[in-house]
Every structure is written in C-alpha cells, then in structure tokens.
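=== RUN LOG ===
request id: a7f3
mode: sequence -> structure
chains: 1
length: 143
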Amino acid sequence: MTTPLYTAVATSTGDGRAGGRAVTDDGLLDVTLAVPESMGGRGGATNPEQLFAAGWASCFHSALKLVASQRRVRLVDSTVVAEVSIVPSGTGGFALDVALRVHVGGGADLATAESLAAAAHEVCPYSAATRGNVPVSITATVA
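=== RESULT ===
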C-alpha cells in the first residue's frame, strides 16, 4: 500500500444529511447539513452533493493547471464548475451524475481547452475514484 500524502478526516453526527453536522478533524470545516427543498427537505444548509461538487471542482481545477503547466500552456482566467446531481438509481436507491464545465480564457483555442480538460480528467483523483461508477460529461469553453 502506498503511503498517503494527506488524509482528510471528517465526521458526520446527528441525522446525517437531514439536519446533522459534518466537521473536519482540524475544525476548519464545520457545517450543518440539510436535505435540499427540491428533495422534500427544509433546505437552508449545505448538503453532501455541494461538498462533493466543491471538492471535485477544486481538485479538477488543480489538475487542469498541472497538465497545462506540463504542456507549457499558460492558463488565464480558468474556472471549473462541477454540477453534482443526485438521481434515482433504479434499485430504490440513489446515484450521482456529474457535469464538469471547464472554461479557459486568455485566447486559448477550443481544441486546446478540450485537450487540457480531457488530460485533467485522467489525473484528477476525484475523476479516477468515480471512473466507471458515475456518469461524467465534460464541456470546455474558451473566451
């Protein structure tokens, strides 16, 4: 087994996504959770899908910057938006569906942006962890 570079530790208490709380071991993340109104909940608080989307968007953006650097492509005003949807699984449970929207500014052409996004999808740990389990669409745009 490989020695981890870092291990994130978070604990969920209470009623989980329905009014529970999630806290990291360093205390920097401390959120109350709520089921979104669109799923019949009260809303008004963070939900696990938002946390997953924030993590994936940030990780994918770092991967995008890494592959751009390796290819000596200067990224300007790049953004990554992760849309994480919870959908019925067909087995009575739920599944995730993800859309990643990658934007590269600064005059890069669309082919370069698409190539960088595809390469980032290969090296991003979130993409690797979900590959084959979660449908992912990736759309690249340029300005």
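=== NOTES ===
The chain has a mean pLDDT of 95.
The first strand starts at residue 10 and ends at 13.
=== END ===
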